[in-house]
UniProtKB/TrEMBL annotation:
Full protein name: Delta(12)-fatty-acid desaturase FAD2
Domain of life: Eukaryota
Residues covered by the Fatty acid desaturase domain: 85-345
Cellular component GO terms, alphabetical: membrane
Keywords on record: Lipid metabolism, Membrane, Oxidoreductase, Transmembrane, Transmembrane helix
UniProt record, GO biological process: lipid metabolic process
InterPro entries, sorted: FA_desaturase_dom, Fatty_acid_desaturase
Species, as recorded: Vitis vinifera (Grape)
PANTHER family given in the database record: OMEGA-6 FATTY ACID DESATURASE, CHLOROPLASTIC (PTHR32100)
TM regions (residue ranges): 53-71, 83-105, 176-196, 249-272
Major location category of this protein: membrane
A molecular function GO annotation: oxidoreductase activity
Gene that produces this protein: FAD2_1
Amino acid sequence: MGAGGRMSAPPSAKKSEADIVQRAPHSKPQFTLSQLKKAIPPHCFQRSVLHSFSYVISDLTWASLLYYIATNYFHLLPHPLSYLAWPIYWAFQGCILTGVWVIAHECGHHAFSDYQWLDDTVGLILHSSLLVPYFSWKYSHRRHHSNTGSLEKDEVFVPKTKSKLGWYSKYLNNPLGRFVTLTIQLTLGWPLYLMFNVSGRRYSRFACHFDPHGPIYSDRERLQIYISDAGVLAITYGLYRLAVSKGLTWVLCVYGCPLLIVNGFLVLITYLQHTHPSLPHYDSSEWDWLRGALATMDRDYGILNKVFHHITDTHVAHHLFSTLPHYHAMEATKAIKPVLGDYYQFDGTPFYKAMWREAKECVYVQSDGDKSKGVFWYQNKF
């Protein structure tokens, strides 16, 4: 079974190049969303306040413990060891805080509890603490779920056709160019998306997640965009006061570098979920919601699957049923796989290898011509 096709477990043997680029089915499936839902045990859709909060408490406890160790003991270490300890702290804290980000993401989908006000309150606090405009992202991300796989209306990582690539693209299609592109994408990609809609859907005018009157939002959503901005500004001011009190270096070491890890993982996770040589994209002549939702890829991040609350390896189920709590997503995925059959997409390639491969293979999309004119596939030949 090919790495981009129908694996239900990580590959145990090296696959051929033909296997790697095996295309996913793109015709209208014979099953319906209702049939998929019936295959999932009913309890998987039940949201528990206590269960959800247990993950918040667990993540914040680990984050607090790491903070306590770093701020109370690192300065006691000999200089060579302290220089090693801080990057280890950044990596561990960044992973834990990515889990916090995922819980806030769950709040945005109303998958945290049965109470919308509680979901929004928890989500606003957690996302603001990570400098994410909660409501702004919630609404744009909802539209991503409503238009996944659409070349015209999807909100994030929308691939370009060859004719719409920048003139510089062919000069970046080499190892050095890919390294530079990935470095910028993983370090600056998230703030560039929020501020300038980089890699997002094309709008008729400037689009920014911090602009309540921008084209991303409707009139009824604008007040909540102001609230999101206020949350981010409050945290930014708090960081400023900390920098004045403890120094900019302290803030960068304790908060800034872990946040960079969070942003990098967020971009990487989203990129790999929606970018793969076997995944189709559709124009308006072919797109429908179910096929678009199925045009996504489950991945394997090893132990980080658990740390990231399985947003990595249950993403297909998440796109089909976004209000499903993450703690039931593994069971739900197992239940729908027999119904999905070949439509279920999983790639067990280690994420660091997959990142490089997708950057190499997935440069632009094009259709096969008259055979399937509205279906587009990744290509890399200039």
